[in-house]
Amino acid sequence: MTSTQHTTATAWAGRAIVAGLLAMVAYAAAYMNNFTPFYYFPLVGEFHWHKQAESLGPGITFYAWCCVGGIAGCAGLLLPHRWALRVPPDLAWLGSLIVTGVVAAHEAHWFFQ
Amino acid sequence: MIIFILLLHNLAAIFLLGAITHQATASWRSGPARRPQGLAASFPAVRAELYATAIVCAYVLTLLLGDVLYGPYRVDVKTMLFETQQWAWNGVFEIKEHVAAIGLFLLPAYWLLWRATPSAQNMRARRCVSTLLAAIVWYALLAGHMLNNLKGVGF
CB A9 to CB B117 under 8 A? Predict the structure, then answer.
């Protein structure tokens, strides 16, 4: 691998780390604040922008939260080259671990009902 | 059809579990892969960098199949958990759902870290990212298995 290739690969790794963390934070923020841009109703196989009557059955919000995360993550890919080179690789697992901990703590209430 | 997809989901998850566990343990091994001396020693004696692409493909496939199963799960199993007030089991699934999404968002960084030239700093990141991903996959598989025992999707 040449020096230029190595620098480019490092920059893309940095962008991917930032994109991943942005996606995780946006996903967690969306579900914690019940921000659901669309719903999927599996009983009738329909997507809707808003909650529907109970006759359509239960709605799935997970796909919408994943989309929110994915869109937020795309913003991380725009990180300028020189900034991307400065992203420490350890941020990938450290940030993910923190978000996982926050999510687990947020869901702990299910075990105390 | 749903049972067939469930079986595929299980098989993909088991393949993923084996691959990520091999890679994570191999990444903590010091020195290059050598001829193994026994069963325990041979487990981490693999070239961890070769696993990354297969793991990404298996993770995405497992997640996509899981997404297909989510509809029947939401209608049959989750409704049953709410009706019978089995809140802890619902919590087990909620955490599975969220950590699976976190794992998905971690995948591009994971893949690029394993493809980058090894350095002291990214070797540690590789180890920890693979170990975290392995923990996510272990949790998701065990949680899914237990929930399926509680009430199987498609049955």
Answer: yes
